[in-house]
Write a structure and sequence with these properties.
The complex is a heterodimer of chains A (about 110) and B (about 110).
Chain A: E1 4-7, E2 10-14, E3 19-25, E4 29-37, E5 43-48, E6 52-56, E7 59-64, E8 69-74, E9 83-91, E10 99-101, E11 105-110
Chain B: E1 5-7, E2 10-13, E3 19-24, E4 31-37, E5 43-50, E6 53-56, E7 65-68, E8 75-79, E9 88-95, E10 103-104, E11 108-112
The chains are: A mainly beta (about 110), B mainly beta (about 110).
């Protein structure tokens, strides 16, 4: 099946810093989503981005499908950005509907 | 609130009992997915259902686990004769069609005593 690798595994920032999280995937995809899992365990949809670039406030994402990677940018980080960031993809082959998740990036933002 | 609704939020069972987890998809969504998150791990796909049909159950354990999405009512994930290793967070997601964004519920935290 498709492989999803996220980097870095852990990231520690001071409030106000910028960061870039990366997601590499091993095959073509129909769907790519970024999620934030907050300290209460809730999974928050950040972006649906199988290709192209999107922005939402301090967050933006870019997926280069031909090169099989996606980037999540967080600018002017805040303590509330802490948590785990997951990338998830749907295989562009026959696994319709099934999302494969990366292992996540654990982000800690200190005041 | 038109989001994905899961209940209960927390469920405690003793070894050998049955656990039933419920999921109501977003309004207008007919595709439901179940995922499991074991402690300190990422999320793993379990099963994909449409109304009255199981589309993909490649991630379901072969024994004790079953899922349904009846014509009326919520989707149910059923775990029979629970064991300690079943302790996890179980998330449900829904989408309007395949390959469109999946929207997740808040999960059910299952604890086995």
């Amino acid at each position: 099946g498709i492989q999803v690798e996220q980097s870095p595994p852990d990231l520690i920032l001071q409030e106000g810093a910028n960061s870039t999280l990366r997601c590499n995937f091993s095959d073509s995809v129909n769907n790519l989503q970024w999620f934030h899992q907050n300290p209460w365990g809730q999974l928050i949809n950040l972006f649906y981005i199988p290709s192209g670039t999107k922005q939402n406030g301090r967050l933006s994402a870019t997926t280069v499908a031909t090169e099989r990677y996606s980037l999540l940018y967080i600018s002017s980080s805040q303590t509330t950005d802490s948590g785990v960031y997951f990338c998830a993809v749907e295989d562009g082959g026959t696994s319709y509907g099934k999302l494969t998740f990366g292992q996540g990036t654990i982000l800690t933002v200190h005041p | 609130n038109a989001g994905v609704m899961q209940n209960p939020r927390h469920l405690v069972r003793r070894r050998g009992q049955e656990a039933r987890l419920r999921c109501s998809p977003m309004k207008g969504h007919s595709h439901v997915y179940w995922y499991r998150q074991l402690p300190e791990e990422g999320l793993k796909f379990m099963v994909y259902l449409q109304k009255e049909n199981i589309i993909d159950e490649s991630g379901m354990p072969k024994e004790r686990f079953s899922a349904e999405f009846p014509k009326e009512g919520p989707s149910i994930l059923r775990i029979q004769q629970v064991v300690r290793g079943d302790s996890a967070a179980y998330f449900c997601a829904s989408s309007g069609v395949e390959s469109q964004p999946q929207h997740f519920g808040d999960g059910t935290r299952l604890s086995i005593l």
